[in-house]
Amino acid sequence: MDPFLAAALEEARLGLAEGGIPIGSVLVIDGQIAGRGHNRRVQQGSAVLHAEMDALENAGRLTAADYARSTLYSTLSPCDMCSGAALLYGVPRVVVGENRTFQGPEDYVRSRGVELEIVDDPECVELMRRFIAEKPELWNEDIGV
Amino acid sequence: MDPFLAAALEEARLGLAEGGIPIGSVLVIDGQIAGRGHNRRVQQGSAVLHAEMDALENAGRLTAADYARSTLYSTLSPCDMCSGAALLYGVPRVVVGENRTFQGPEDYVRSRGVELEIVDDPECVELMRRFIAEKPELWNEDIGV
Asked: What is the CATH number of domain B1-70+83-99+129-144?
């Protein structure tokens, strides 16, 4: 597995071990992880810290020039909010572990010029399938359903 | 002025007084403010707490049924990230103080079924015009330019 997707998956598993929603993300700039994170809905009662948002937040304040060289990795297809964050900051490339259990606005994101790569990784799929089966209400809350 | 837009403007001024970016927001449910907030880039070094995100975060964990009855007020046209957050949670109506100094993806948001009302309030315009003239680099950082 791509080492950065592996790092995002490690974040997802950390979140699961904390009793949280198992989605992880890393922001990579110039081949280095600039920020890593996982969904914090349960842990911090957060409505905005999805994994991608947590990774962006942990990367801190960056310039447009920094984001222009970045790739955002997520174990799951980014939702409207997280896709919007990538668009705001001009992240040119997003690598997605899987989009079988949930699919964000991928066509729209591509139409705005972002390169979106879907890895379709079986470990990412299995992690989410099990979580959704076990905690469907928590999952629905997280994606606004 | 609409009392909820006035509350958002009050938040924007609080942010300015803290040395921050003067954008404020409130989330209203059933005629009551469920969460209020302002941009926290300077104050918390935050890349994700735009005003609307801060208001959503301060409203805490809500259900889809709660968001379905909500209106999000912002002193400024919501950016890609904040618009995406409204879409994620199915906020049906967004009231915007002004969109002269910055315009988010309004057509897209409308195409997704959200009612977007632009108030074009002169106080909101003046607050942002002055801020952008005084701190253009901070403003550009906040909108990813």
From this structure: 3.40.140.10
